[in-house]
Design a protein that fits this description.
Layout: E1 2-6, H1 14-28, E2 32-38, H2 42-49, E3 54-57, H3 63-77, E4 81-84, H4 87-100, E5 105-110, H5 120-128, E6 131-135, H6 138-143, E7 154-155, H7 162-166, E8 183-189, H8 195-207, E9 214-219, H9 225-234, E10 240-244, H10 249-254, E11 258-262, H11 265-277, E12 282-285, H12 288-293, E13 300-303, H13 308-320, H14 322-339, H15 342-358
Length: about 375
Amino acid sequence: MRALFLVSDTDWSARARAFVLAARGLAARGHEVQIACDAACPVQMRAAEAEVPVIALSRDMSTAGSAWNLRGALKERGADVVFVHTDAEHLMAGSALRLGGGVGAVIRRIPPFAIAGAGAGSRLAPRLAPSGLLFTTEADRQAATARAYRVPSALATLGVDLERHDSVPALSKESLGVPADSRLIVCVQDGGDTRFVLTALRSLSLLAPRHADLHLAIVGSDRQDELRMHGAALGISSMLTFLGARQDELSVLRAADIGWIAAEGDGAALAALDFMALGKAVVADRSPLTAHYLADGIAGVLLSPADPPTTAGTVAAFVADEERRAAMGTAARARVQREFAFDAMIAGFERAASAAMERHPQPVG
């Protein structure tokens, strides 16, 4: 099988990471894989680190120009299936296959608890080339309508490679600019909706008078000026460290005493799996997504952020009980191994590609 993963994000993102993970896993099983992304962007560098071949696309092109650019790459190297995430990527891949006149299908991956697009692009793209949907959870698959897609839908749960996590080196708190004797909460934020991370900031401000040893480090996004202002307004600037987007993010997570998730979609799902794989107990706002990945009271604590004092009290009890957190970390690690295995994720991508290839898809004439 020849698979191409199209990534239009110019910054490193959770969905780009999902595709790099999938490409590396498929390559390990003997499939030919490539990632198409903007030249000299962080995605290209991460793909190279994972030893996945890259097709560098020109920057600042229109959708039509990018499709023509991709058409040339597909014509030269070929692909049985192109994996995409967005409407624009679906249109680009479908147009490239149609223009190239070759064999191939497009599989659009739907992140966990996201809704498959219903815009003009999502209606047109399946008419350009045979297409299918790849869901991350069975609940999303059951709830979706996929009548417009000729390739049967498939399921690929997210998973992480435990061996890779076990090999991640630890960072000292001092190297992160955090007091060595602090209890470190590492919060993963994806740069999206800030209300999730504001729960963490408000909780810390309420806990500060009695828990001066707590320290919150926020990682995952460089866009943190608004959070700095909130921290200053709450009087907790000295208890905060802003680490931004880092290439060694997993090492930062390993340094945590407690994990906190303040992200959405793939960002929240991968943060949950990362913390759990590293044996860390996790705090997160309660949502269908976090409840899917984190067993409340077993692998972590899910909060109801509408009541800050209650939330702070829950976090205080969680912080104070080190033995409970250690037991949760152990349970979390076992849950990843049992329910979110990396091999299961790769098998899902294989099934999606096989379903497309079995239909012998041809571009629509």
